[in-house]
Amino acid sequence: MELLRRLKTPFALALAAGALLLTAASPASAGKNMKVLHSFCSLTGCIDGKAPTGSLFMDEAHNIYGTAETGGAHGGGTVYELANNSDTGVYRFRTLYNFCNVVNCTDGSNPVRNKLIMDEAGQIYGTTQNGGTAGNGTVFMLVPNAGHTRYTQRVIHSFCEQFSGCEDGAQPVGGLTYKGAATGAAYDGVSPLFGVTTLGGRRHVGVVFSLTPNSDQSHWTHRVLYFFCAIGKDCTDGQTPNENVFVDSHGNVIGTTAAGGHNGAGVVYRLVPTARGHWAESVLHDFCNDENCADGKTPVAGVIGDAAGNVYGSTAEGGTVADACPDGCGLVYKVTPAGNTTVMHAFCAQDSCADGIAPSGLMIDSIGNIFGTTNGGGKGGHGTIYELNASFVVLYDIKCKNAKGCIKGVTSTGSMAEHPDGRLFGSLLEGGRNPDVNQGVVFQFSPTGS
Question: Which pTM value belongs to this model?
Fold first, then answer.
C-alpha cells in the first residue's frame, strides 16, 4: 500500500489502486525505475554545464530547476531548467543563465550546492560562491520576461573580500530560504531571505545573513544575524555553517555547522530574534556527545523541518563503525524544538552496509516521510536511495563498476524534489552517459515502478 499512502489527489489514488491490482514494484526490482533526464557536458565545451551540485526545486507546473557548479558558456556554472510537458511527460533541458557573463565575473560564478527558490512572479533566487565585485560571491535573482522564455540576471548583494574586514561574510553556499518555505508556499517577494556564508565575519568562519527588499526590489538591505565563533577560542557556538537553514513558524532560523562545538564535531544551532533587535544563538545539539560518536559527527547539507518545528538532518560520520568507515558511517537524526535529539537511522546497520554509508541531503513530504541518498555502501558499493518513516527501506541500489561506469550517476551533494505522483527527482555530481566526460546527471526515480 506504499503507493496509495504517498499519492495525494483522488484521481492519483484511483490510478494507484488500479496499478496495484496489476503489479507491485519492490526495491529489488527498482533499477528499471531510474531514468536519466539529462547528462551534463553533453554539448561541446560543456556549455550545458557540469558538476550539478545541490538540491532541485520543482514549481507548480512541475518544471525542475537546478544549478551546475562549473561549465556553461563562460565556465562559471549555470542555472538550468528541465521543462515539463504535461501532455507527454517529457522533460526538456534548457540553460536559463550562464555565469561569468561579464568582465571579472561581477555577475557571480560557481553556484555551489544551491537550492533555488522562486517567488510568486516566477523570479528565481540563489547564490554563487565566487565572483561579484570583490570575488567572494553573490546573491542573485533571475527575472523572466512575460513569456518566461528569457531571463535577466541581477546581483542583489556582492560579498566583500575575505580577511579584510569582511564582516558581511564571504563565499556563500547553498541557496536561500524564507519563513513559510517549508509549507511549499512561493516566496512573497517582500519578506527577508536567509542564507549562510562559509567564510567572512568577525572570526572569518562564516555568518548567517538576511536580505530584505524595499517595495519594488530595487534595493536589498543586507544584515548579519550571527557571526560564528563568537564564543571562546574553540568556537563552542559552531563554525563553518552548512547550507540549507530552516525558518520555523516563529521566524527562528535553525541550521548546522560542519565544525566547532564543545567536541569540534559540529552543532545544530537556533537563532531567535530578540526585542532589542539582535539575534540570540543557542546550541540545540553538540555532536559527538555519545561514546564513539553514536550521536553523529560532521553534519552535512543543513536541515529540513516539519510543521511542528522538528528538524532533521544527516551526518557524514559517527553512528555505526565498520571497516569501510572507521569514524562511523553516518546517520539521520531528529531534533525537537526543546533540543531533544534522536538517531533515526545509523547507516551500515545491514550486512555489508547494504543500507548505505555517508548520507547526503534529505527531503520530507507532506505526510512526514523522509527521502535521501547515500554516497557509499549499498550492494553495489556506490550508494543508495532510501525512505525513512517508521522503518527504513532501500528504494534503489546504485550499481556501477566505478564512478566513470555509472551511466545513471553517482555521488549526491543535495536533496531530491518530489512530484505529487510520488516520483523523485535529483542530481548526481558524477557519472552520466558519457564515461569520458563523467560530469553528472539529473535523474527521475519512481519508487512505485510507474
Answer: 0.90
